[in-house]
Amino acid sequence: MAWRTACRGIIRAEVPPAEIQTRLVSRSSPSPARLFEGRGLACRRGERLVFENLDFALSSGGALLLTGHNGSGKSSLLRVMAGLTPPLTGALTWDGTGIADDTAAHHARLHFIGHQDALKPVLTVAETLAFCAALRDTAPDHVLPALRKFHLAEFADWPCRVLSAGQRRRLALARLVASPAPLWLLDEPSTGLDEASTQDLLAAIAGHRAESGMVAIATHLPLPIPGAAPLSLEKFAPRRSAA
Amino acid sequence: MTAFWALVARDLRLALRQGSDAALVVAFFVLAVVLFPFGVGPEPQLLARIAAGVVWVTALLAALLSLDRLFQQDYEDGSLEVIALAPLPLEAAVLAKCLAHWLTTGLPLAVVGPALAALLRLDGAGYLPLIFAMALGTPSLSLVGAVGASLSLGARRAGVLLSLLVLPLYIPVLIFGVAAVEQAVAGFPIRPHLLILTALLLAALPLAPWAAAAALRPALE
User: Fold this and answer.
1) What is the ipTM of this complex?
2) CA-to-CA distance for B67 and A188, rounded, in angstroms?
3) A86 — contact with chain B (CB < 8 Å)?
4) Cα–Cα distance between A183 and A112 in angstroms, integer?
5) A111: which chain B residues are within 8 Å (Cβ-Cβ)?
6) Per-residue pLDDT tens digits for A54-92
């Protein structure tokens, strides 16, 4: 937890092993290829202020591991990052451009996998992925590799209603690979996954980062992601309990 | 454009595979119209007089029945988030869903409508105007309905709220849809009524997706 040395609000990586240092999040790192940043973010859910004064920075190949107790705002932060929830204060920028200026471009570069699997009982596994690829205007070339990566190829023609909870989760995650996007926002991605599938997920994340992708993950389960910068939401809880 | 048609194709596929939804709407339409002769009596003159109004009012109610499936299921299973986070503008996504909704609801209603009018002995001069009016009017029902469906999303008793929101907005389509048929039967030109129905559709085409998308965004926060 050496990252605590960073001043409040700025996420700096723990002094990392040399081979991954260049990928990591740090304002002082030499001009990264891409930079996704949030400054002074606050978020309100209903009448409650969830977090405030939150800064983060995520650069190419970087990973952000969001931790915190239930209700600390991990999911809310991911939704703010996705542009689903507008932040109460602060701004998000991608390479210095505000994401609110061009939401279509921001949506094109991100995948958000929330708590829900977003599957239709009557569509088959392959149709689900093909639709997701088409919805993002990408060719269906990646659908088959995505099915293989999450060991779903043998179920390709099954309707989603017969899938188990773990298989449904794997299919939801296969969307990440079915249409490439540089930013992955994952909310409790390993819930319901067995050990082998969790390894598939970790491999997919590692492969994504090796191709300069970035990933932000909210999780309670221990996910060994090398060089991930931890971001504890509890640090940004509002000083006063309610606004 | 790929994304737009992919969304239309997905909604059509969903409607075909869980075919009961679309079939139920048409079945409701047929049954409700068939009830009228039992209620008002079998006199041919009376039925012919009310035929256009009965067909139109029942078509509005049938369309209303189908509106909750426009966004509700996608909202509940998280698909709406996936759609909203696609590069496709949310307005275009709403338009795609309205198109699929019209193809699976409005179009079958417009096809069955004249047959039901025949059941009520509508005057022969009224059929063509009824077909035109329903073809022009039912897309407006889907579009205006999408605004109500998005506004009532996530609300308790959404069905009741939806009818309170949407039925008053259906009144213009009802007035001019019925007027086109009745004027034709009375021997007057129907062109003005069809032009007004076209104008309503052309106004709803950009405004309704815009309003529905604006109502969906807070629901997705």
Assistant:
1) 0.86
2) 33
3) yes
4) 9
5) 85
6) 999 999 999 999 988 888 889 999 999 999 988 999 999
User: Which residues from chain A sit within 8 angstroms of residue B78, using beta carbons?
Assistant: 114-118
pLDDT at A46: 83
Structural domain count of chain B: 1
- If pLDDT is split at 50, 70 and 90, which confidence band does A228 have? confident
pLDDT confidence band for A240 (50 / 70 / 90): low
A118 and chain B in contact, CB less than 8 A: yes
Distance from CA of B181 to the nearest CA of A (A): 41
Residues on chain B touching A107 (C-beta within 8 angstroms): 85-87
3-state helix, strand, coil in chain A (%, to 5): 35, 25, 40
**Helices and strands per DSSP (H, E), number in chain B:** 10, 0
pTM assigned to the model: 0.87
Mean residue pLDDT across chain A: 83
Residue B194 belongs to domain spanning:
2-220
Q: At what angle do helices B191-220 and B90-101 cross, to 10 degrees?
A: 130
Whole-angstrom distance, CA of residue B104 vs CA of residue B161: 23
What would the 3-class secondary structure string for B109-131 be?
HHHHHHHHHHHCCCCHHHHHHHH
Q: How far apart are alpha carbons B157 and A49 in whole angstroms? A: 29
Angle, helix B191-220 to helix B127-151, in steps of 10 degrees: 20
**Rounded to a whole number, what is the distance in angstroms from the first to the last CA of chain B?**
26
Phi, psi of B208 (to 5 degrees): -65, -45
Q: How far apart are CA B67 and CA B49, in angstroms?
A: 30
